[in-house]
Amino acid sequence: MKRILVTGGAGFIGSNFINYILENRDDVEIINVDKLTYAGNLENLKPSEDKSNYHFVRGDICNHELIDYLFSKYKINSVINFAAESHVDRSILGSEIFYQTNVIGTNVLLEAAKRFEVERFLQISTDEVYGSLGATGRFTEHTPLSPNSPYSSSKAAADMMAMAFHHTYGLPVVITRCSNNYGPLQFPEKLIPLMIINAMHDKKLPVYGDGMNVRDWIYVIDHNRAVEAVFEKGKIGGVYNIGADQEMPNIEIVKLILNSLGKSESLIEYVKDRPGHDRRYAIDSSKIETELDWKPKYKFDEAIVKTIEWYKTNKNWWEKIISGEYQKYYEKQYGK
Fold first, then answer.
1. Is 3.40.50.720 the CATH number for 2-334?
2. Between residues 257 and 329, which one has the greater pLDDT?
3. Which of 6, 90, 112, 261 is spaced 20 to 30 A from 123 at the CA atom?
């Protein structure tokens, strides 16, 4: 039995991963530690919460004593570190919590993993650590790190630290760097859910700059599959880029959402660009495709329809978030 400490498992990608793994496998035990900050939501884990091989612990990955206790109590033999402050806009407004969680928190996990001699430490990172591309080219695993935001710099620092633990102590580290995710359970401040929800309410859809910032978009289930493949078969000390080869400018996505919902493009409102906004990301996934036989299954046109439909039929989920009802409940239940 693999006993995996999954950090940040109440967030968008982490919760999708836990639900996916526990639906498809019974040879793993997952201990999910999450601080339940604004983007953490236990409602995301309804499909998994009653399973005997799933355990939730509310806690901060920066807490040495708690992390050591979890390693000892549950005999943890692997770590998948999803935990992160991840919203670029928030990192621009206030960077300290990003370095605290993404750098210090990762250090606490690495130190514990070293002491308890884990079999594998999977660091979940982002393509944003590579910086910005011009009109051509793609990020490979050999692209130099050149982060441009407080968020991406904190993730790059965590990646470098994880790899240093591998080279210095022999810790069995693997790193994944994924392109932009979308799908069910994504926090409403992110581009795609924000545009869907605003359009449903006939509110303005704010688009940064000229809307021509390009991202490579991947459906979250495809990311889950890639993480599982790297966790099971990825080469120790390796880095694996994960993308779906589905580049789109932001404005095209916004227009597609409006068209799908039968709304007018007059709802689009161009706003001042954010500071240091990277122009284009594109991922070369040939390494994971060749070495681990992984390929994305979902095309954007198909998965964006599924995503829009999910937000249309799960209003109760995002309405509670927008109103702050979830956060008030967790504060009452667990304390601030």
1. yes
2. 257
3. 90
Structure letter (DSSP) for residue 131: -
Contact between 224 and 16 (Cβ < 8 Å): yes
328 band by pLDDT with thresholds 50, 70 and 90: confident
Closest residue by Cα to residue 59 from 78, 47, 77, 73: 73
Q: Cα–Cα–Cα angle for 8, 9, 10, nearest 5°?
A: 95
Which two structure tokens, joined as six digits, stand for 86?
A: 């991840």
Q: Which of 20, 99, 151, 330 is catalytic?
A: 151
69 is catalytic: no
Average confidence (pLDDT) over 113-119: 98
67: alpha, beta or left, given left = phi > 0 and alpha = psi -120 to 50?
Answer: alpha
Write the CB contacts of 20 (distance below 8 Å, at least 6 apart in sequence): 221, 224, 225, 228
Q: Which of 29, 128, 222, 284 is catalytic?
A: 128
Query: Is 127 marked active-site?
Result: yes
Residue in 34, 85, 127, 278 annotated catalytic: 127
First to last CA, the chain: 34
Burial readout 163-191 (b: 16 or more C-beta within 10 A, e: otherwise)? bebbeeeebbbbbbbbbbbbbbbbbbebb
Residue boundaries of the structural domains of the chain: 2-334
Q: What is the pTM of this model?
A: 0.95
Round to whole Å and give the CA distance between 331 and 46. 19
CB count in 10 Å sphere of residue 142: 8
State pLDDT tens for residues 18-63: 999 999 999 999 999 999 998 899 999 999 999 999 999 999 999 9
